[in-house]
Amino acid sequence: MYLTKEEEHILQGEQGEVVERMFRLIVQLGDIYGADKMIPVGSVQVAGVSYKSIADPGTEFLEDLAAKGAKVKVLTFLNPAGMDLENWEKLKFPKDFAANQLRIMKAFKSMGIVITATCTPYLAGNLPRFREHIAWSESSAISFSNSVIGARTNREGGPSALAAAICGKTPNYGFHLWENRQPTIKIKVEADLTFDADFGALGYYVGKQIKNKIPYFVGIKNADTDQLKALGAAMAASGAVALYHVEGLTPEADLVKKDSLETIAITKKEVDEAYAKLNTGKEPDIVILGCPHASLREISSVAEKLKGKHLKKPVWVCTSRMMKEAADRMGYTDIIEKAGGQIVADTCMVVSPIEDMGYKTTGVNSGKAANYLPGFCKQNVCFASMDKLLEAAL
Ligand code: F3S
Question: Are both 228 and 320 inside the same structural domain?
């Protein structure tokens, strides 16, 4: 890989031990993947934030970096943490877990990272532009930024994203190059899709079938950004889809080559099959919405459904702190809390320790969450639309 004089000096330690170590890591990555050079990144999103995911070794690694004076060079946000960083006591998150989570947040903050823990950074103040190079590491955020925004990121791991943040650069390979953004399979959608959960079921089915291919969807007549985020999140979870195109909807769909692609048709039968596969439980003991983190529009629909009602079961709506603040101002939080539900910021059903909080069966409307909850959180899953789940909780 070609390195500039300045980059060579970084490898000789001119900018200190931490930058040298981090730069060496991304140079090695670039060499492995055949990058020709380094490119500047506009922003970074770092995964590996929850104490549940990184435990003591990860926490100590971050504290060590912070103690050595690591600082980020570009706008850097975080993936969800393991708890609501402000209301964890009220929500009954375990105290020892909280103490460790707060150590992690302190280390990130001292590196200059924005303590906004969300998988929808694009809704919370970190919005890349079309064709901007970025280094993000949460799979649904990668999918959304590559596909719906048309920004360019590889599937970064926590350490390589952190290295990109500290160096302000990433190696130029993979999805940063136009030739690697071309579709490799066509998906003809013949099923009617109504609810966000339908998009999650479609994404789950397609991801399982195509693994890490790049799908070009035809037949999706209309979908809002919430439905596209549900689709991308599920495909990234059941497969490893980091980029997709939707005819007429996503910005690169008209620009890519899509002739003579192998085609798979998806009918109602396949969508129903995905629903059946994802449903492993009967009655949820908690309903958790907001995977990926809920938009203000999604929070407002929950508030509308719960207005003046009383929930018999706990309901959480996971979101970013920014969306929660907007929901507070709009009175949505008040409506949801009066009904007995909670808006839970900074975390989600998968990275928080719900299995240690007494829950065994979780109701979700997200194909991604339904895919991960059995393995990551030992949960049975009731996968259905938001309307059905809220009806069951009332
Ligand atoms: Fe986000 Fe957690 Fe879902 S990180 S995409 S809400 S599993």
Answer: no
Kindly report, residue by residue over 316-374, the tens digit of the pLDDT.
999 999 999 999 999 999 999 999 999 999 999 999 999 999 999 999 999 999 999 99
Q: Is 353 in the pocket of ligand 1 (CB under 6 A)?
A: no
Q: Give the residue among 150, 175, 237, 254 at the shortest CA–CA distance from 202.
A: 237
Residues 6+ apart with CB under 8 A from 134: 41, 42, 43, 44, 45, 128, 145, 151, 152, 153
Residue nearest to atom 2 of ligand 1 (CA): 348
Average pLDDT in the 210-235 region?
Answer: 97
CA of 80 to the centre of ligand 1 (A): 7
**Full residue range of the structural domain in which residue 284 is found:** 279-393
CATH number at residue 22: 3.30.499.10
Q: Ligand 1 centroid to 168 CA: how many Å?
A: 26
Examine the domain organization and report whether 270 and 324 are in the same domain.
Answer: no
Ligand 1 site, residue 237, Cβ cutoff 6 A:
no
- pTM of the complete model: 0.97
